[in-house]
Amino acid sequence: xxxxxxxxxxxxxxxxxxxxxxxxxxxxxxxxxxxxxxxxxxxxxxxxxxxxxxxxxxxxxxxxxxxxxxxxxxxxxxxxxxxxxxxxxxxxxxxxxxxxxxxxxxxxxxxxxxxxxxxxxxxxxxxxxxxxxxxxxxxxxxxxxxxxxxxxxxxxxxxxxxxxxxxxxxxxxxxxxxxxxxxxxxxxxxxxxxxxxxxxxxxxxxxxxxxxxxxxxxxxxxxxxxxxxxxxxxxxxxxxxxxxxxxxxxxxxxxxxxxxxxxxxxxxxxxxxxxxxxxxxxxxxxxxxxxxxxxxxxxxxxxxxxxxxxxxxxxxxxxxxxxx
Length: 324
Description:
The chain is globular and about 85 Å long. The protein contains 15 helices and two strands. It folds into two domains: 2-72, no CATH class; 91-319, Orthogonal Bundle (MetI-like fold), CATH 1.10.3720. Strands 1-2 form a two-stranded antiparallel ribbon. It has 324 residues and is an all-alpha fold.
């Protein structure tokens, strides 16, 4: 197991270096940071001093190594737009995005897996047809339109849920949470549903297709011939064997939720990293954009490692060495 973890980490190093190079290219070659930071009126002496402070007078390989070294320490320079350390901005916004992603992923799993199991076991019932129709709607509608429709119904027409913001938060050390206040919980409802809808329908359809395939397999027929109860067959044999592809999709979708929450955060003005990234794009704030890109790459690499480890817990063939 230890060797497996080390091999996966070594495989992730080239990926992170490639993403770091792309981020560095954005940082070094997109726009003019000197003009952005100094404005239009500056003297040659001021320009030379800032060039030296930013290390732009060094060769490109040295600048890249310096960029990687700073990134390993969590340093990404100053935001052009806000003149604050990028690491501080990310740390301030990360709790909001992670809480939203956690709620959306939990909702997608808690609702999507049971719906997929039910539609796989009782595919001819009217409720299964209703679930499948709902899944088509969830897959077809774009995220921003879902968010706008939810705001229209629950905020404008009914007036029961807030349409923007995070509500009241409580600070626990450096972490801020909305889980401990009523307004914070209410503010989570609409963006969580918006962000979870596509993942929920994707998980439901994946579980359904896997359940249909497993229920036709020989070992399920053999289990029925042995006289096992339906409950034992459905949850002890069939559902367990659907978990490997489900774990893959859920892991990748969790990374997607964090990476692409920016649309949901923009619609609901949710003060997370996604909204910070969108604002930075509009202002050509390259340090923030580069830091966000590296952070998302790290999230995907970490999630892929966790998914690979979960394979070992679910699939005995991998533990016996036959899965490679």
